[in-house]
């Protein structure tokens, strides 16, 4: 029904039968997003659970390589995001036809099998992120309970708690929120999540500063953890690779950039507003990342935990630790929606195209709820989205790792989605000549980032293998 409605609107728009103040040039409902709402979406997507592992990542890389890698990924991410923003419309970035998804953008500029490869990389990455956020949200919820236990019984008590009940709670919340029809209705949730991300990142930085000022003399080094003292030579190599993957994950939002851009109103031009939003989003997150990574490393040194708020780098004040972890959980509730909405939209649009006459798939029903007004309910949306949330929760229960999982997701998504496709589409859009100076250095950048992704993936896989040796599914974790 929705697809039919859009087609009717397009026809009516072209014939002049629809009031053009209510619809855009493609016949869809008028977009109202601004660079500020887009910035909120980006910050929600970027400042995620990855920020909490940056002190650990800096400990593996040291004072020189750690900040340098953070800045390098920041610059590369912003640079390629501007290229991707110019591809939202084709062939002209201002007046061309809209592309609603990353796959449609790749289809317009590159075509062929690259469209399928993009879809595999994007949606595989989005699924991985939603699983990862289920894991990390439950870890934060567990940390609240353990923090209270440590405060009551002392730091020497194990305070074992299972993550599984909290994953179920998180999934129940997501089942409700997943009924939000599309990205355009998510602005309020993203703004709330962005505020939460600022809150817990600030608390982490504040506690780290307090620890340093309080006279904590943690052992640090220009090159990070020391071979023969902290780790063996092979562990140093694998941890370095994994740390690079963690940092790559911390900047990943290209998977949802086009979907975010599709929420923007057409004046000013969407690509200009998106570039501004990207600059604000990436600059803001880089500032927090530098603070969390560097100040956290100064506070904990080479013994920095993988997650300094849930790994109990801090025990007191316990109420502030509790508040920070609640903020993390609320942020991840919103971030989950930012990353799962493109998956929902893809499956629902493809199903509607394949079975346009199936009322279960295309039908929507109006329900009037007191104080909320009319809402539109689709039985297919209800069943499919609920099933997706349940499956991701079950997988998360079986696979509850943190740093290794973050690194693997970052490595798998960084090169194809953040670097390769934006560069290839930019080359196609500008019709660059092969072996010209610009073409050559863009290709060098792409190949260099591929090597980074491969070594990061290797480090993460090795970490997962080590974790699997001692892990038993569905058992209480310490």
Query: Which band does the percent of strand residues land in?
Result: under 5%
**CATH class placement:** Mainly Alpha
CATH topology: Hydantoin permease
Radius of gyration: 23 Å
What quaternary form is this?
Answer: single chain
Please bin the fraction of helical residues. 55-70%
Query: What is the domain total for the residues?
Result: 1
The gist of it:
The chain has helices at 2-15, 35-46, 54-85, 102-109, 113-153, 164-177, 187-213, 233-250, 257-261, 270-300, 318-354, 359-362, 379-398, 403-430, 437-470, and strands at 89-90, 97-98, 365-369, 373-377. It is mainly α and 478 residues long.
Considering the chains and any ligands shown, give keywords for the structure.
478 residues, mainly alpha, Hydantoin permease, two-stranded antiparallel ribbon, 15 helices, 4 strands, 3% strand, globular
What's the helix and strand layout?
Blueprint: H1 2-15, H2 35-46, H3 54-85, E1 89-90, E2 97-98, H4 102-109, H5 113-153, H6 164-177, H7 187-213, H8 233-250, H9 257-261, H10 270-300, H11 318-354, H12 359-362, E3 365-369, E4 373-377, H13 379-398, H14 403-430, H15 437-470
Antiparallel strand pairs: 1-2, 3-4
Helix pairs in contact: 2-7, 2-10, 3-8, 3-10, 3-14, 4-5, 5-6, 5-11, 5-13, 5-14, 6-13, 7-10, 7-11, 8-14, 8-15, 14-15
